[in-house]
Amino acid sequence: MTLLASIEQIGLQTPITVWAKPDDAFQLVAGAHRLAAAKHLGWETVDAFFMKGDDIDRQIWEIDENLMRSELTPTQFSEHLAKRKELWEAVNRDKLPRLKVKEIMGAVIGRPSLPQRRPTLPG
């Protein structure tokens, strides 16, 4: 069954999501296919969630919605995931632990960095 047929038969079960831009215009965040189906069916209104947050929150929500879609190619999936990581790091930069280069290098080779010392030889 297509999305259009489903919406025609049982209605819109999951509202679209919109975000109020700083200029008070609305931007669609999630539900482009649902909105297109409603327009095709001649609907004049649809239920919508109004998300709170800033533009980064909006982008993360949109990316998460797209990551859940099965028709993404592996390249599209990787691009979305990379963008989400970039946005997440921008929001959480101050919360990330700061590691010294020596600690990072120890983690890379699979063991924590230890202070340098000479072994004690017997006798």
Compact description:
This protein is mostly helical and 123 residues long. The chain has helices at residues 3-10, 32-40, 55-67, 74-92, 101-108; strands spanning 16-20, 26-30, 48-51. The relative contact order is 0.10.
Notes on the structure:
- The termini are far apart.
- This protein has helices at residues 3-10, 32-40, 55-67, 74-92, 101-108, and strands at residues 16-20, 26-30, 48-51.
- The protein has 5 helices and 3 strands; from the N terminus they run αββαβααα.
- The longest helix has 19 residues, at 74-92.
- It has a 3-stranded mixed beta sheet with strand order 2-1-3.
- The protein is mainly alpha-helical.
- Residues 103-115 have low confidence and may be disordered.
- Helix 1 (3-10) crosses helix 2 (32-40) and helix 3 packs antiparallel against helix 4 (74-92).
- It is flat.
